[in-house]
Amino acid sequence: MRGDARKDTLVVLVLGLAMIFGLPLLIDPHQLTVLVAYGMLALSLGLIWGFGGVLCFGQAAFFGLGAYTFAIAGINIEESTLPLILAVLIPAGFAALMGAFMFYGRLGDVYLAVITLVVSLILFRWLNTTAGQGYEIGAARLGGFNGIPGFPILNVPGRPDLPIWGESLYYVAAFALLIVFLLVSWLLRSSFGRIAIGIRENEERVSLLGYDIRARKTVLFAIGAGIAGLAGALYATWAEVVTPNLFSLQQSSEVIIWCIIGGLGTRFGPILGAAGLAYLKFQLGQQSGIDNMFIMGLVLVIFVLLLPRGLAPEIARFWLWLIGANRRTARRRAPRAGGQNG
Amino acid sequence: MAETVLETDGLSMRFGGVVAVDHVSLKVRARELRCLIGPNGAGKSTCFKCLCGLLKPTEGRIFLRGEETTGWDPHRIASLGVGIKMQVSSVMNGLSVHENIWMAARRFMPARAAAQKADEVIERLALGSIARTDLGRLAHGERQRVELGIVLAADPWLVLLDEPAAGMTADEVDRMGDIIREMTRTAAVIVVEHDMQFIRSLASTVTVFHRGRVLMEDHVERVMADPVVRDVYLGKQA
Amino acid sequence: MDLAVVILVEVLYAIASLVLISAGLAVVFGMMKVINLAHGEFMVLGGYTVITAVGLGVNIFVAMLIVAPLVVGLFGLIVERLVFRHLYGRMIDTMLASWGLSLMMIGAFKMIFGNTQTGVTGPIPGLTVGDYQINGYNLFIIVVSLLLLAGMLAVLRGTRAGLIARGTMQRSDMAAAMGHSPDRIYMTTFAVGSALAGLAGAVMAPLVGIVPTAGAGFIAKAFITVIAGGPSLVTGLATASGAFGLVNQAFSFLVSPVIGDVALLVAAVVLLRLMPKGITTRFFRGRL
């Protein structure tokens, strides 16, 4: 088991570095940066949903919270290190509160999903009304549907005079994603992670083993939110403006679609889905023949009908082959998106 | 006299107008093997669920090792050191035998020790050949054995088994009996069962349920010979 | 006194519009446990149908009450045969497929009708009550929603189709065992639900500006009303709409319309926390 872990880490590092340095040769690093941010967001949902079985339709809310926190804290502090940390902690805290509300209330899967979406939409609606005086946090105005522009972007820690942007930002973001990926891998191998997967498989049984599943789900949910928040901060520094659209139905649906297409149950699937679809969307944005949304919707419908597990099974197979894992370790079936039918 | 590990006092469970468990008072001692028997609908499974925490009793109290656990959530009861196996096979299908048993052990010891414990239990129950197979792919009898392994891995001092022999072949039932007897070296075991031959082979004290109440409680041979019990079981194979 | 009447009308209108918006989804969810996230777009389709029909010279009432439901019902039928039929039993896959469908429809609307807001003028003039003006159309909507609820009850209780529907809602396998093809029942139910959505969208068209993305506003409200309503179709619909409509209107009146919407959403979250499976699992159980 431990040999596999080491091999896995090694392959992740090798492939990761190869991609980090290789992709800019094919795609403009400025564009790659936002793909990385989306990939991280998708990874966060893939973690809690694919591995933890927690269905959350409002993951965009934590993405948006991270972005807004980064912006607001940045305007007030004028340096980016603390805002970055807050962008992780505040969404995580918010998720912990939500988790306490939802998981301890014994709500079914589907209702959970709906409530998370509803919360995201509440934030969207409310933020859109925050234009003008009176809606400020410290020195930062919330700005209504125009959002918040002009906050300090990421800088070298402690050196607000050395901003990180352009190609450097890409490398910082890409390495951040790699590190998060490795941390997530480690988490999944740890006892906490393995028990989380057990909870996904059979919640009642795990509780009969003596584990407090409500607490565990809340913690996992918070971790996912923190990662989404970090992605939000990266997005904010890339876009240099944060708007309520980050909380919109559109953003929420995109995160879900990325995960479905990429496939749940692997770490890389959602990232691939996110980067791939976002890239596709940019390319399609250039043409105006067929509407983008139409195509995205069509892709989603086709995948649900024909490839309900997304690309994940193929990725998993490829991965196992790559690390030459023991074949007798019977293939972990990637859970279907509809696996937790309630 | 060994200590009392489980005690219920006037335990009752009502569902609307139906009284499933009617003022049941039980006392089980350390390392005792007790069978709960009775015809269908007698209340033994409902009583079982109350003991596990899956149902909150409408009346009465439950004590585990002197501590009141009435109304506790299942995970709190389990973490006291109570091993539970439900009637319907409930395991983590997508995980391997080793993973399932590891998870049971992990609650009470660190990860590496848990892995070793899982290995031991797998060895003891002769599950070595399927240790890395996903539970979802196993035959019924093998799954039941794995479930026993899950219970054993936690080294419980009280084991609650709901129809452990269901759906097993005669050989498997014999082996199950051996394992249960062995368990009583370290734990009190409460078995809810239908299979009379199996119960006889366990040769223990038996509590007979009837219409939610305790009809009789005595050694299995005396209970089997009792005419009232015979009446209650009219039509059943004894 | 006049003010009381006006407020009463506004509250009833808020409740009525929730009933209308949610009816189609309630039918589809209540009967088949299908969560159709494209429900909002079905409504918008109804709206566009009315606009197009009126543009072609059709009388507006005919367009709203006959043409739109027919068109959207037919559309629903086609979509059911092509997509949802394959996904029954897989609740989450159904949600995702319907999400995709909703995106497709929004894209299609943009391509066909463009992004600008189109609308029709309300066919009923305002009325004066004392010092206040009320929109006569609001009264029309209240009437339509009442007729709708009454109609649903009548069909469910009085007709053979309604009986089969109720049976299927409770035990689809038994209904099948008695010779009723669940396949056909689901197809019909989905078509009816779609038609109701079309009706709702058509009737709301004069009040709400029809843009390709108008559906999103409807689906959230409809969704939470249906889930909060619980298993009883008509009673659940009525009680949930009643509760939320009241909250919505109260806060709209006291603070602002946007806060009214926010309050509705918050009320939904609280209600689901208290009664996770819907109002009619706790109150009015067993009613239709």
3D structure, described in words:
- The complex is a heterotrimer of chains A (342), B (238) and C (288).
- Chain A is mainly alpha-helical and 342 residues long.
- Chain A has one domain (2-248).
- Chain A has 13 helices and six strands.
- In chain A, the strands form three sheets. Chain A has a two-stranded antiparallel ribbon with strand order 1-2. A two-stranded antiparallel sheet of chain A has the order 3-6. A two-stranded antiparallel ribbon of chain A has the order 4-5.
- Chain B has a domain at 1-72 and 188-238: P-loop containing nucleotide triphosphate hydrolases (Rossmann fold, 3-Layer(aba) Sandwich), CATH 3.40.50.300.
- In chain B, the strands form two sheets. A six-stranded mixed sheet of chain B has the order 7-8-9-4-10-11, sandwiched between helices. In chain B, strands 1, 2, 3, 5 and 6 form a five-stranded antiparallel sheet that branches.
- Chain B is globular, with a radius of gyration of 18 Å.
- With 238 residues, chain B is of the alpha/beta class.
- The longest helix of chain B has 14 residues, at 111-124.
- Chain C is built from eleven helices and two strands, in the order H-H-H-H-E-E-H-H-H-H-H-H-H.
- Chain C has helices at 2-32, 39-55, 60-82, 91-113, 136-158, 160-170, 172-177, 182-204, 215-229, 233-254, 257-274, and strands spanning 127-129, 132-134.
- A two-stranded antiparallel ribbon of chain C has the order 1-2.
- Chain C is globular, with a radius of gyration of 19 Å.
- The mean pLDDT of chain C is 84.
- Chains in contact: A-B, A-C.
- Chains A and C meet through helix 5, helix 10 and helix 12 of A and helix 4, helix 9 and helix 11 of C.
